């Protein structure tokens, strides 16, 4: 196993390559540092707790189990992940309050993935998401986009707490049910949405 713990204060930490035969943990709970990693690989779960600035970037995260990114204590978000490829353990990404951005290129999981932005005003933009099941919860800004969503089980997009919503889905392919809930001043655009089960769009709380 591998573990890195940061103290208080600001600064920057740069990780070229980190590989471990067990779990990998990076704990920056009390830090204001920016964190940049090129390659993280673990045979256990990769867990990252960002500092109060919510600043984390990684080119590649690979795990035979899961990936947990916890930015819940951050007052903003500046998170960029090029590629995440994880195994059969459930994964989660949690954002804190404030504005900012969570961006990703390819996120692939053989288990369920939860993206919790319910307390955040950050925009979430991920080019491609593939998972067993997918749940995305949005905050007041309700800003989410994805070019490809491929899910073996159910896909839930919850923007019921949004005061405005700007959602773009280019291609969605889901085996089980799709549920999208909107509120506030809502705008949603989509290309192909495909499921062999039910598709439910609820906009009862939306003003448009």
Concise account of the structure shown:
This protein is mainly beta and 208 residues long. Helices cover 0% and strands 66% of the residues.
What does this structure look like?
It is a single chain. With 208 residues, the chain is mainly β. Helix content is 0%, strand content 66%. The protein has an 18-stranded parallel β-sheet that branches.
Low-confidence stretches: none
Q: Indicate the percent of residues in helices.
A: under 10%
Q: In whole angstroms, how far apart are the ends?
A: 51 Å
Share of residues in strands: over 45%
Chain oligomer state: single chain
Shape: globular
Number of distinct beta strands: 18
In terms of structural class, how would the helical and strand content be classed? Answer: mainly beta
Largest beta-sheet details: 18 strands, parallel
The value of Rg in angstroms is 17 Å
Number of helices: 0
**Helix/strand order:** EEEEEEEEEEEEEEEEEE
SSE topology sketch:
Layout: E1 2-5, E2 12-20, E3 24-27, E4 34-42, E5 46-49, E6 55-63, E7 67-71, E8 77-86, E9 91-95, E10 100-109, E11 113-117, E12 123-131, E13 134-138, E14 143-151, E15 155-158, E16 164-174, E17 178-195, E18 199-206
